[in-house]
């Protein structure tokens, strides 16, 4: 039985003492029960106690049940109200439900009548809460796209083309999309924008990092499993295809998948069916796939590390996100965007940015692209105690020594390698701190340390 602290509070409003006591005795084992014989007493209780449910008679002194319902919904909108109808008049019941009542039952009533109404209301309340959560998530995602989508803010030709492409492919909700771009160019935000502008916008958006999923866990992660299907399967689990059904599934870092994992993914995308681990039944799914990689098309199609048939399956429509160094004309707009959003987030009121800062940023190579610019802006805003950001607030750029004239030739991999080395030196070779400084995931840093043979230089 629940403890007193765990019980939810319920208020019974009824001027008939017999029914009031009967209702209280029925509900007292599961709820902390408050009672009132008049609406005025009831509203004093509502203001003082955290009431979850109200059961109100319709015929009462001072005001009737519908008036009480309207007042509760206005002043305490999260409280669920169950109406008691003496006459069972359906017009009254319908009006009560229309005005926000969760359920109703008639007098005279039995304990089962009350409990059935309570159970229906609990289910209704749970569904409503889940819907509210989903709505809030959708709102948050839309705000994230509107407020944090620095990757498609700008006036450059490239940005205008990307926005046009997003709108075009969003209109075809079944088309697979492959987003290609360097780390930090905003691939996931573009994927969210595609989802949010499509017919699937009211369904779920899921994101899976393919580089972090071992081959042995692919079926469990994507298909789900039933309890007892393997040693650690202590309960049923829904996989991605079930969770995101009717929505959009974003597959990040697809270029890092092993060949074995690529075969598994290709098979399920071709069949459009999956089988939960521990079962034999094939289940269809309806999911738009948006994939992303920082590898070039040449690398993906040379046959050495990526299956060509999977590339064609994922890349029905391809969107290229240019690195920031190729659209430097957008830097002033991006700086303004991040200044405004970070000012608000961090409680600052910095008015502007010195022209020398724009020159400095325009000559900087941005190995981390938009993500790195945002990171630099956040650091500068933290350091700034005045009304204007100036060059001294971006001193970390000079320590990386990458602000060379744009017309000089450069090797991108060499820049990336040197940036990682300097980040490691600055953090005394603390890999977790270096990853945070570079604004990349730890596993992404790990891959780059292997790629550039930097582990040997670190002594492990």
Brief summary of the model shown:
It is built from 20 helices and 16 strands.
Could you walk me through the main structural features you see in this protein, from its secondary elements to its overall organization?
This protein folds into 3 domains: 8-128, Rossmann fold (3-Layer(aba) Sandwich); 151-322, Rossmann fold, CATH 3.40.50; 325-458, Helicase, Ruva Protein, domain 3, CATH 1.10.8. With 460 residues, the chain is of the alpha/beta class. It has 20 helices and 16 strands. Helix 13 packs across helix 15. The chain has helices spanning 17-27, 39-48, 65-75, 90-98, 111-148, 157-170, 187-196, 218-223, 240-243, 259-271, 297-301, 308-314, 331-346, 355-362, 369-383, 395-400, 412-426, 431-438, 442-451, 454-458, and strands at residues 8-13, 31-36, 51-57, 80-85, 103-106, 177-181, 205-209, 224-225, 237-238, 248-252, 273-275, 282-284, 288-293, 317-321, 352-353, 388-389. The chain is globular and about 85 Å long.
Question: How many strands, which pairing sense, and closed or not: the largest β-sheet?
Answer: 5 strands, parallel
Shape: globular
| The CATH C-level class name of the largest domain | Alpha Beta
**Low-pLDDT sequence parts:** 1-5, 145-151, 401-410
- The computed structural class is alpha/beta
């Amino acid at each position: 039985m629940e403890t007193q602290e765990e019980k939810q509070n319920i208020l019974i409003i009824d001027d008939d003492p017999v029914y009031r006591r009967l209702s209280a005795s029925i509900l007292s084992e599961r709820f902390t029960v408050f009672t009132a014989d008049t609406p005025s007493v009831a509203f004093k209780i509502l203001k003082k106690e955290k009431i979850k449910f109200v059961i109100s008679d319709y015929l009462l002194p001072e005001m009737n049940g519908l008036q009480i319902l309207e007042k509760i919904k206005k002043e305490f909108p999260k409280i669920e109200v169950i109406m008691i109808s003496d006459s069972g008049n359906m017009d009254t019941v319908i009006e009560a439900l229309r005005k926000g009542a969760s359920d109703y039952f008639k007098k005279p009533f039995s304990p089962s009548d009350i409990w059935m109404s309570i159970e229906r209301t609990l289910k209704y309340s749970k569904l409503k809460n889940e819907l509210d959560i989903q709505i809030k998530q959708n709102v948050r995602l839309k705000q994230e796209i509107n407020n944090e989508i620095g990757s498609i803010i700008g006036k450059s030709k490239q940005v205008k083309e990307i926005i046009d492409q997003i709108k075009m492919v969003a209109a075809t909700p079944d088309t697979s999309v492959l987003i290609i771009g360097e780390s930090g160019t905003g691939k996931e935000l573009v994927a969210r924008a595609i989802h949010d502008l499509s017919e699937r916008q009211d369904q779920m958006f899921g994101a899976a990092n393919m580089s972090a999923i071992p081959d042995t866990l692919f079926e469990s992660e994507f298909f789900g499993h039933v309890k007892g299907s393997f040693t650690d399967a202590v309960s049923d689990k829904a996989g991605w295809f079930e969770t995101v059904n009717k929505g959009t599934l974003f597959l990040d870092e697809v270029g890092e998948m092993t060949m074995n994992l690529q075969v598994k993914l290709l098979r399920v995308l071709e069949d459009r069916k999956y089988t939960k681990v521990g079962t034999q039944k094939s289940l269809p799914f309806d999911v738009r796939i948006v994939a992303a990689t920082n590898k070039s098309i040449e690398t993906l199609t040379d046959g050495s590390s990526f299956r060509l048939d999977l590339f064609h399956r994922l890349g029905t429509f391809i969107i290229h996100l240019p690195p920031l160094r190729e659209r430097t004309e957008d830097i002033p707009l991006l700086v303004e965007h991040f200044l405004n959003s970070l000012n608000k987030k961090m409680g600052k009121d910095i008015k502007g940015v010195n022209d020398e800062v724009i020159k400095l940023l325009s000559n900087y190579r941005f190995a981390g692209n938009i993500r790195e610019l945002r990171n630099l802006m956040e650091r500068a805003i933290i350091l700034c105690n005045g009304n204007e950001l100036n060059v001294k607030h971006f001193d970390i750029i000079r320590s990386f020594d990458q602000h060379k004239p744009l017309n000089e030739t450069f090797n991108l991999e060499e820049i990336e390698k040197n940036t990682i080395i300097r980040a490691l030196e600055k953090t005394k070779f603390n890999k977790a701190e270096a990853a945070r400084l570079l604004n990349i995931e730890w596993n992404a840093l790990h891959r780059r340390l292997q790629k550039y043979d930097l582990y040997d230089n670190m002594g492990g």
